[in-house]
Structures are given as C-alpha cells and as structure tokens.
Specification:
This protein is α/β, with parallel strands linked by helices. It has nine helices and twelve strands. It starts with a helix and ends with a strand.
C-alpha cells in the first residue's frame, strides 16, 4: 500500500482516538483474539486497509477473504491475535473502512454484471470527501473503473467550463497543453448533438453525452463515430442499475454512474474480540 494511503488511514484512526480511548484505558491489559465477520453477502473490499491497521496495532493477522472475493453472511474475513487495548482502539475505524469499501465494491459488481464485456462501467468523482482513493480502489474490486483519480489526471471540460469559452477554443488550448501537463486525455461533456459533433471535429479524445435518452444517444454516437472514429463516447447522467441495460448495447465505449458511490450502502461487519486463553 502506498505511503499516502497509510498516512490517510492513520489520520482517520487518529481522528477517532483524538486524546485517547476513554473506555479502553480502563480495561485491564490482556492478550486477545479478534475475528471480523460479515453480516451479509458482499464483495469484500478494504481487507488490505484493515490488515494495515491491525498490524499497526502490533497484531498478528490471518486473512480468510481477499479483496474482490465474494463473502457470504457469517463468513470470517480476518482473524488476529495481539494486545487487547490497541485492537479495541482501532475496531470501529476498521469496520467503517471495510463497510464503506465493500458497499461500493458490491454495488459496482452488480453494475459490471449488467454491463457485460461490451461496455466498460466507470465511477464518477462523486466520492466520499477524504475517502476518494479508497472509493476508487473499491470500485475496481467490483469490476468497475475509476474515472479521474484527481483533477490533474485528465482535462475534462464540463458545462460550467463552457460558460466561459467555446468547445473549439478550449480544445485548441487543451491539445497544446497536453505537452506540458500530466493529463494525456481530453474530454468534453455535451448536452446536445451539435456540441458532440463540434467536439468530435476538434479531436476530443472522449465525448461525454450527458443526460441523453438511449434512443437519442444511439443516434448521436453514430454521428460522432462517423465524424471522428477515434473518439471514445461516454454516457452519463441519470443512468442507474434499473436502466443500465438500455445503455450498454448502443455503441458507447463507457458508462459512468454516480449511483455507485452516492447510493452505496455500508456493509455490516462485526469484530468479536475475546480474551486469549493462557
């Protein structure tokens, strides 16, 4: 795990601990065993993070389910042995991280299954503040791709950018800027077919059709591909698990779904901590 993610996890733990665990400091020190189990069927995500926090607490860890694997209700995910106080202190942080990441991964798995192999499903940037990297890691465990990891990774002109300049003007600047920035792709979000063709004519790498109906999107995709066969087409806006099937076989290269993070439900995990037998 990269150091920035480790530091973020420790910051999350520190936020919970603040000046110390007022309850745990009153408990007699002892060796313990801890078992993390899932309370519902899910795609597991966050195991690497949980293991890091347990090992940070000087516990010895055994992993029973790896990230990306399916787990059934009641199955053990991780067991650990160590000192009770540091394990008790990180219990809720571990369960929260596992719960959120597994919730995202489980929802993404459903979307990936509906989409099949013809159209790739992507996350949007509607991630949990401060938890962006972990949400995007979780989506990959569910078979979905992250969109942009950060604002520097791609040039993407949305409707608010287009308030200040034309598609043609911004794309001209973007192609020149690619030589000097980490961003290697240029995408334009469009609201209508006219804008889509303008973006295609000006060599946008990706054209995002925002809030298009399946019928309208199919027609626009055909025109984009005729104008610029190299351009990729992304569909976004109003796409959910109920209507996803209507969007995945109409010629688009990718579909992005805010639902995968906005509506991800925390998966129920529990940690049973027992006094170790001497």
């Amino acid at each position: 795990m990269p150091d920035p993610k480790k530091k973020k996890l420790l910051a999350i733990l520190a936020e919970d601990l603040l000046k110390g665990d007022a309850s745990t400091r009153l408990v007699p020190a002892s060796k313990c065993t801890a078992a993390i189990t899932t309370g519902e069927n899910c795609v597991v995500s966050g195991v690497e993070e949980a293991v890091f926090l347990l090992r940070h607490s000087k516990a010895k860890v055994k992993v029973h389910k790896k990230d990306g694997q399916m787990a059934k209700k009641g199955e053990k995910i991780i067991t650990a042995t160590g000192q009770n106080k540091p394990v008790l202190e990180c219990e809720r942080t571990i369960l929260n991280v596992l719960g959120r990441m597994s919730g995202v991964a489980t929802l993404c798995k459903k979307a990936s299954a509906i989409a099949g192999k013809k159209t790739r499903v992507f996350l949007t940037r509607k991630t949990m503040p401060g938890f962006n990297e972990f949400d995007k890691k979780a989506c990959m465990h569910g078979g979905v791709f992250p969109h942009r990891k950060n604002l520097a990774e791609m040039i993407l002109f949305k409707d608010n950018h287009l308030e200040f300049a034309s598609i043609t003007g911004l794309l001209e600047k973007a192609h020149k800027a690619k030589k000097f920035t980490p961003a290697k792709k240029v995408e334009v979000e469009v609201d209508n077919t006219k804008q889509a063709i303008e973006a295609a004519e000006n060599r946008a790498d990706i054209i995002m059709l925002d809030n298009f109906s399946p019928k309208r999107a199919k027609k626009t995709i055909a025109r984009i591909k005729k104008t610029n066969p190299a351009a990729l087409v992304e569909l976004s806006g109003g796409i959910n698990l109920k209507n996803l099937e209507k969007y995945v076989n109409i010629g688009a290269d990718m579909v992005s779904m805010g639902q995968l993070t906005k509506e991800a439900k925390m998966v129920d995990f529990s940690m049973a901590i027992k006094k170790a037998k001497s």
